[in-house]
Design a protein that fits this description.
This protein is about 55% helix and about 5% strand. It is mostly helical. The protein has a two-stranded antiparallel ribbon with strand order 1-2.
Length: about 210
Amino acid sequence: SLVLEDKRSVWMAQREGRTKDGDDRTQQGVLKMVGMAKGSDSLLEFFGKLKIVPVAISYEFDPTDILKMPELMARRLDQTYVKSSNEDFNSIIKGAMGQKGRIHIQAGNVIEPAELQMLEQEVSSVNAQLKALASLIDQRIYDNYKLWPSNYIAYDLLQEEPAFEDRYTSKEKRQFERRVLKRVNIQNTLELNSYLLMYANPVINHHKLYENQG
């Protein structure tokens, strides 16, 4: 009712929790929960009325990157990870107070009802419609996501080739490499790759989007 009746904007995260590896994905469950208020409208007709505006926020550096490593490593090793009692609190404080470098916020265009009508014609099941809408929101976020030198440097280090060396300076690369050295054991390939992926995944997602479009 806040959106449709009071005409107020509501901020909603695309998924529960915080991304750990830079691979942001809109969770279908979040959309399904919102869609429970559709009433007599079809699912995508209802979402069209909500006037969804995908918003992309990117930081040059993640002040919590090192705090995420234990959970990332547990996932990569297929191990169960148990959080400490104050882990989330410490992450929130460091995320709020830590150095992020440059920050970019960009609001995309409203997802128009006509776009959702086209999706509705292409897919009929509720789950397929939710998946298609989540994918559309992701595409808009990737399209508007500001990629920083740190993202391109991490990608090139991960791939071990200078694919994007025109996007950063040698000084920026040295600074990022020093950051990596302070945070992970570079002799541990799995640990190093997990860390680099935190910064490289936005580049991977952005360029997958254009590959799929072209």
